[in-house]
Amino acid sequence: MNSYPPELLAQLAPVMFVAGLDAPPTIPASSSQPSVVPPAKSQDAFNVLTLRLRDALLVQRKVAIWQPEKNKSFQVILVDKEVKFPPRKLVPTDDPQYSAAHSPLSPLTPTSPLHPDGLIAPIWIRKHTSLVPSVFVLFLRIYEYPPHVSRTPLDFPDPDRERDREAEERRRDQELAADVAQRKKITNDRGIKLTVVLMASRKMLDDPTLDARLTFIRRQSGLDSRAALFVLSPVSAAELHEFVRSLQQALYEPALEYYTAHSKRVRRKRNRHSQSVSSYPNTTAGLTGLSIARPLRPEGWTVRYEYKMACFAEFRSEDEVALKHYQDAYEMLIIMFGSTAILPPRTKRWAEAKVLADCINIKIVKLYLYNNEHALALSHHNTHIRQFGDFSRGWGIGEETFEFWSWIARQHRVLAELLEQGTKSTLVIPVHKPAAANSNLSLSQQNLRAASGVEYDTMRSLGVNPSHALQHPGFYYYMAARCTEMRRERFLAAAEAELSHKPIAMSPGFTNEKKVEHLTIINELYTKAYELFKKHSPASNQAQGRLTLWIAYRIAQTYYDSRKFDMAVRFFERIAKTYRRERWYSMLRPLLSTWYACAQQLGDVELSIKLLVELLGHDVPESDDANSLEEDLVAVLKSTVPSSPDETLLVDLVEAQPIFDSSVVFWSPEVKVGERAAFQLIMTAPSTVSLASIPFSRLAIHFADKTSPLVVDHAASESESTVRRVDLGHATFSDTEEPPVVIADLRWLPGSTMVFTGTISSEISSVVLTVEENGWHVNIPSEPCSKRSGSGIAPRWLSSIDAPEFVPVKRTEYNSTLVKHRAHHLKVSFHHETPAYLDEDYPIVIEITNTDTRDLDVVVNILLQPTEIDDAVNWIVVDDARSSSLIKGVHLGAISPGVSAVKTLHLFNTGAGGDRMIDVSVQSRTISVEKNAAKDEGEDKDDDGEEEEDDDDDDDEEEEETSANDTMEHLKMLVVPAVNPLKVTHDVVYRRALDPWSGLADLQTFDEAFWDNRRGGEALVTTTIACAGPSSLNVQSLKLERRDSKHAKVTDSSTDQHDDDMFPAEFIGGDEFCGNCRISFALDDEHDVPQAAVDGPGQYVVEWCRILPNGEHGPMTTTYFPLPSLRPPLDDLVALLDMPPKASLHVPISLTLTIRNYHPTRSANVIVQLEPDSLDGFVVSGVRNGRVPVLLPGSEEKLIWKMTPIECGYVEAPRIKVVDRRKAIPNTTGSNEPGVTIDPSAGDLVKVIDVRRDMRHALVRTDSDTSSQDHTEFSEEHEGSGTILVLP
Questions:
Q1: Euclidean distance between CA atoms 140 and 142, whole angstroms
Q2: How far apart are the first and last CA of the chain?
Q3: pTM summary value
């Protein structure tokens, strides 16, 4: 930005003049006079206060270009008390012509530097930033009368001295007020706010007369009542900064009013000039060639006034208003530049206007950036360059002149410097990343993008135009450097034309251009761009890294043009490493050429040879000779000698582009161990570079497992065939043998091919070419498979040499062959009786037979796959190993050819039936015959010593490593179906308990052993076990294992009686056997049977084994069948009728009716009625129709009748009707409403159960696959009184 006046670029801020803070005089360090008495303490304090005030005020705001902060601060300037302001007009104020006079800087003033048609001058900005303030702060010392020292504390105040003090203070205050009034008059004439700060001691602040004195001074001097008078005493540095801050905040509003008044005055002038019509014609032929002073046109006045209003708005920190006025001034300037009559090119006013336009453009861009409007800032910058570029072509300053590129470079550099200052402060450069992936978008956006399809993907692939996106400052430094390079090219062309005396129009600035050090400027710009690119580029961003390297290459090229070859070489070394690694050969080729030129200038022969060899791998441009590199290399080798003849110069081309197109092709894609692999090493010379005269002396082919290479020596021949074949034979030599020497002609014509054929049992690691000439030994290693950039040679195999013919190799991995071990032949079979039964030990015999010709060491891994069957728990057992998933490393030992090895796998299945899957992995490895023989001999012989064992350790390790590599795996899957061998069905019959209920006060109910079966009863369980499997079973025993609980217990069982005739027994499919048991259950009052059933109090234990087809018995298996869960039906209110099944004629019998209330909370109101029509066969004595006392919850009531049979045979017992009247009582109980009657016969009938037939059946089925109780079915119970057999 040094190319422009700093006044036109700096950020404007309100200006504050501070007077009265002159620095105190310093006392010299050495003085010939004797030491004087130090000054008073108060004087020292005021000196310190003055110095601190100067520092605190000057540190508030510095003059800078980038200052986006909007704090209430001033640009402080320290001035003298008697400072004078520049005159507003040339004539004094009392002159009659004062109103018609103009400012000294106005174009209307003849003595003005802008007369007659100037726009604006930097001195106008300097006047408002350095000569005229918006506020004036005057620091003064208020007079303090010297203190009187009393001799004793009892002295009275001296009245005379007090009068003298008051008179002296009044006189001094009048003098101070007069000075302030004089300064006030000067500032009032300019509209400047005057503020006085009186410095007083801390003692003075406590003086009661201080307020009166301050009032007197303010009135006498005419100071304002607001923010015009302050008092300051010596304070600490922190308090002083707080005072300065508050002072600026108090004076900020008057400063804004000052600049607002200036803006209004300028706006009135602008309106007046915009309404006037210029008397100057537009363009006339008679005036274009004359040098006539013409007044400023209305367009110029508009530019002048708009610029002034923009500056005053900038003083007020109104950025939006300033931006609008700057844009208006800029647009009017564009109109003026569009007419050569208004601004003739290459004139003084034209140059001033051009500088002003550039500075306004910078201001506009800066204000846009303040508001984070990056796109608008960059757009205005590009528009400025484009518009003035078009103007420059019309002025004769187009792209062919150095002036054009100088101006373009200046614009880019100014923008870069502005961005650099902004990024150091608050500016954040936007990051231009591609749009987010579809996964981060809403559904509607994804549908929209999916609909656009390829068009949207195409738009994303276009990226962002750098000229439309704001970059970091390094990018614009780079653009400035490139434009400066164009400027230098145009200048050199003009200088060459001048030396050759060609007729060319020289620019007026050509003489000054000769003094410019272009290369220094270019290097400076590139260096700044390089540093900023490194700063703003992340390490992972390869694209930015390459651009940084490109800038480094331009720096090196500039050093080369500046003839600083050593610096250029340093850059080339660093850049070339990355270009080689990333294969940027198009950029590496010119770099190597310039690097070679630097090496020539420095006289570095070895570096020159290395660079020439590397250049042989790159195509020669069409404009150069194809033999130039070859001739240069041979000339260097012949004209120089190495510094150390015994040393070999190594030219490493591992990352560089190779000289030859070389490839290794194997004929067979795979070979077995011990077989020879036929290969061809094909080396093709480039067609654009000549290598015929390069003295290659030998070619060394290095193998991966050999220390000595296979060497091909050079021997000249007369053959000019483009395809030559060299037979290498079989590379079977060991490290101790001398490798064979092959002779061949190692000279390649352009585009010729040399094929080296042979067989190998190893891998080619590298190929080294050796060049020997005049004592030079240059080794050039390269990869066996390498291609030059742009080479389209496909893999091929030379099949004929007489008429050279190549067979294309179409496989992908043509440059390698896969060496495989021979397959191991094993036969794996399984022997087992399917299906498997649940709970049994199911043996599976695994038989492995070696059908190979070699001894194989076999290891078996067995994996039991997890099953998705519910409640299934499975495991496998092999030898002593047990696992629910994997048994690994079952070693079967070495198996000789034709021998079988057997291993038994035991499978255990529980839970439910279904398929079980087993994966068997058989891993085998070869064993050498010699090792087995040595082991056999070692078993027969004793140990003769430890030395022989130590000698064989290495051989054993090698053999073990070879065997470990020769390992193969055979995978087999076995699916074993598992079924349930026994199917169980439970038949449950529930009966009510007939024992009398205990009373509430019965103490035995509190005994822990008391069995309370009031809410319980008995369950008769009949369990039927059927043989459901395909194989016969041998059942050894059936037992009931009791597990009594607090709710259920087994009272007796059929298995308690030993029956030796029943078990053991054989059962085939469909056979059944059963067991019976009686269970007594007792329920608590809180027990909810429908929600929680009573667990069965035991389980049946069945011991059985499978009967194999050969009649043998399999392993013994134990299966457990738990008793079913009890879910007895519950009653609320029931009547139990107990009577004998038979009677004798005319012999009385008893009939008992027990009414029980099982409901936990509700009582019962029961009526019992004996039906008369059922009394024909008996004479009944007892209640015929009566009410039972109220049955409380959990209570019972018994009714007994005496009956005498009068008929023989099966006589129907009397029918008894039991009614619960509780539900018949209406809800309006307690109301005395008339008409409400109760029907005695109404109510709910209660079931009357004959206890002789009290059997409720429940059939529980057990699923054979899941072993879980599926469902329970209840049968209907029989109600009614039944019959009695009456015998005579």
A1: 6
A2: 143
A3: 0.65
